[in-house]
Amino acid sequence: MLKIRAKEWLYILVFALVLGISIAGFTSSLYNYNPFPFLLLGLLTTFYIFTLSFFTTEINNRFFIKLLPQFLWTPFSLIFAFLSGFLGALAGYFSNSLLDIIPLNLPLKKAIILSFFLALMTASLGYLLYKLVSLQRKEEENKRLLLEEHIRNLERQISPHFIFNTLNAVAELVWQDQERAEEAILSLARLLRKSLYLEPFISLEEELELLKDYWNLMSLRFKGNISMDIKIEDEALKVRVPKFSLQILVENALKHGFQLERGNIAIKGYKREGKVFIEVEDNGRGFEKLKEGVGLSNLRERLKLCGASLSYWSAQGKTTFRMVFDEV
């Protein structure tokens, strides 16, 4: 079953109108008649055929196709396209008889024959358009599969990076405080269990839940010397972000900004001028030139896949990492 999108129906309508105008213009030129009545009749007939094609296609996709085996989908669709062309052409013929748009001395029998051939043309064009749309769908599906595979490769890269860094932090606790080490391992298990079943891109609201688990885990290590403030506007909560994006930025602040000593991390999320901004700011030691490691370079790549960007700067005793997303 191939569903036609609204934008594609618009293209089909434009194509049909151009074809109708062309046939009408050719016919009027052939008999040296005033072209405007022919153009009017051509547009009217085209509109009838398009309208019938639209409704029969939608009805076919919604009801009949579901009841038929797959090998009958194409023949059944062609029958509907043929009927749309045939009935639309007859509707144009009867409209001309009622409105007297052009002086056609055409018997009904000949009108039926002409409608039959016009229906064959409609079915042929319908089949051609079906093939073109099918090829476009296959290309879109191939691009989607390639993108998903790329995302999975990136996730396979970031997950071990995240887990190894966290396990290193837990390993230090084993020698310092076994109870806190046990609590840290349980916190890590909860975090991994939650993240395991999430998609590569999740809502900021879900990402914050993962961050809280991660923060509980890391707090066991730095004993509350580093605080974290979160201020997210409600409008920003639904934006979709790469999984573990906030953890990577917070981890960068803990590791490079504070070296796990003391300080404050502020996380902000807000919407301005059709964009959603997410910032992670720390008052650590800062940097003059930052060399991106695995985490940051991986995050930048994943942000590109969802049309977002990453920037950062260090000034006046504060370091800021900013992710910018399109409007939700």
Features:
five-stranded mixed β-sheet; two-stranded antiparallel sheet; 7 strands; 328 residues; single chain; Heat Shock Protein 90; alpha+beta
Structure at a glance:
The chain has eight helices and seven strands; from the N terminus they run αααααβαββαββαββ. With 328 residues, it is an alpha+beta fold. The chain folds into two domains: 6-143, no CATH class; 177-326, Histidine kinase-like ATPase, C-terminal domain (Heat Shock Protein 90), CATH 3.30.565.
What does the secondary structure layout of this molecule look like, with pairings?
Elements: H1 6-31, H2 35-67, H3 73-99, H4 108-176, H5 178-196, E1 201-203, H6 204-222, E2 226-232, E3 240-242, H7 245-257, E4 263-272, E5 275-282, H8 294-305, E6 309-315, E7 318-326
Parallel strand pairs: 2-4
Antiparallel strand pairs: 1-3, 4-5, 5-7, 6-7
CATH topology of the largest domain: Heat Shock Protein 90
C-alpha end-to-end distance: 30 Å
Report the β-strand fraction as a percent range: 5-15%
Q: Return residue spans where pLDDT drops below 50 for at least 5 consecutive residues.
A: none
Summarize the helix and strand pattern as letters. Answer: HHHHHEHEEHEEHEE
CATH level-two architecture of the largest domain = 2-Layer Sandwich
**Count of helical regions:** 8
CATH superfamily of the largest domain: Histidine kinase-like ATPase, C-terminal domain
The global form is: elongated
Proportion of helical residues? 55-70%
Average pLDDT over all residues: 82
Report Rg. 32 Å
CATH class of the largest domain: Alpha Beta
Any idea how many domains?
2
Q: What structural class should be given to the helix and strand makeup?
A: alpha+beta
Major beta sheet summary: 5 strands, mixed
Question: What is the strand tally?
Answer: 7
As laid out across the biggest beta sheet, the strand order is: 2-4-5-7-6
